[in-house]
Amino acid sequence: MDGSFHVQQATAEPHRYLDRHLVTRDPDYLRHDCTFSSSHRRLRNTPQRHIMSRPHPALEQKTGKKPNILIFLLDDVGWMDPGFNGGGIAVGNDTPTMDRLAAGGLVLTSAYSTPSCSPTRATIHTGQNPLHHGLLAPPMYGMPGGLEGAVTLPMVLKQLGYVTQAVGKWHMGENQGSLPQNVGYDDFMGFLTVSDEYTEWRDIYFNPEIALSPARTRMMEAMPFNKHELHCTPADKTKCTDGRLIDLNYTKDLDHRWMDYSVAFIRRMKDSKAPFFLYHGTRGCHFDNYPSDQWAGRSRARTVYSDCMVEMDHVLGELVKTLEETGQAENTLVFFSSDNGPECEVPPAGRTAFRGCKGSSWEGGQRVPTFAYWKGMIAPRRSEGLFDLADLFNTGISLAGKPGAQVADFVPKTTYIDGIDQTGLLLADQGESARRSRPYFLLGYLAALRIDEFKYILTAELENGFFPRGYNGGFTGPIATSTGGAVTVNLYTDPQEDAGSGVRHLPMMTEIQATLQQYLRELVKYPPRLQGDFAPNNPPLYDLLPQLKAAAEKRAAAGPQVPPQ
């Protein structure tokens, strides 16, 4: 093996199913593990290449339809909250359903979200990182920004014959073009923004200066943001139908109402000839937590957060029980995760084994509890292979599409897809991740890059004691400081990211730097959407800032891109 490097570039084909960013010294990795053709999805090794020719078509022949897909997304739940990651009863959260499903499925110990809710939800729906889909921060109180103009997973699945249903928290834009019925969903029941937007200004404990002032309360009531539970269908693309006003009392009932709605949908789909895609986003366990009266005080910890955690375990259990009772469990992929790490600034909150919390580029902010369960299809095991929630886009299309289908069949050539098809990781008995590298984003920052167990930290938040400080929640204020120069850590030996040891990691640096440059080149070729400002002091993007802005403005002027028909 010589000392030359081989670069996987996304030039004319930005939708490939391999880790196209990785730069490696090992040509065998590229020759044997990264081959791609129109007749093969990206499956990392020989057993994985042929996995789609075994159980999946056989199951389709048995059931008469493609597999159902259920994404169950928690809110503000930390990596170590569920029992399957060492939490559970040890931290006052009884999570028997999560633990049972995880034990019967694939636990992904290195699965990653973005640092906050809206960017993660958009990443799941578009297969893009925040710089590419443009939703860098959660839009609050009627702010602009959302999925409008994007090609989404439910859009593609509808083309493939799926019935698409979204239930629960949306928070991917309140503008007309970003409403659920306009980005691929046949039906939506839930609210459009975020839990605390409905509660924080009503709660005397959190905001007495507003809640105890009739004038200020009237001011909040007059602001133009969603305040009701909504029902949305394509019958009216301009708006949704208002349901009940969401006040402090009704907030407690939302997760059970949404549970009942999803259960009813699953039951209706029992005799359908079409497969379904169900995206269920919970209100819990987002701060401020309001467990239902039925579950208040039921957790071992007896905190509102743990009570909500136990309640969410029950909600998941009811959905899975309905799949089993209706005979749909063996034809349904259940994917469980959280939208970001725990919100440590508003205790009581979730727990993580890592440094940092929600709104952080540290591991605690973006590494989330995740498993994939598919009765009889996914072998029970744990994997430390990298998984980005953007990979759900490619993987969902791979499972739903015809043999030989590619993401490029559904996405404009000018749209860059950051996700990678992880079908082989899920379905092969000893499947490996198709991903070796993963970037970390925070607002407009490319904050870090992970390759295998190594993390190259470019930008990080100032911390003061236990609580991260100086970045105002991580998504609404400036980043306080950088680490004073890039640092490389080994996440196996230093999961707290405390002691960078550059000398010991020098053998990795050429690979890391070349891979980082590959990401930057792709940002110029496939520029970010203009839904937020770039951080001018972002070290890796600083020199590229003029090019990025010019390319992004050119893209915006070109108007929406039409996907292939």
UniProtKB/TrEMBL annotation:
Protein family: Belongs to the sulfatase family.
Domain Sulfatase N-terminal, chain residue ranges per copy: 67-401
Lineage of origin: Bacteria, Pseudomonadati, Pseudomonadota, Gammaproteobacteria, Chromatiales
GO MF annotation, one: arylsulfatase activity
Keywords from the UniProt entry: Calcium, Hydrolase, Metal-binding, Signal
Cofactor(s) needed: Ca(2+)
UniProt keyword Ligase, yes or no: no
Pfam families: Sulfatase
Protein name (record): Arylsulfatase
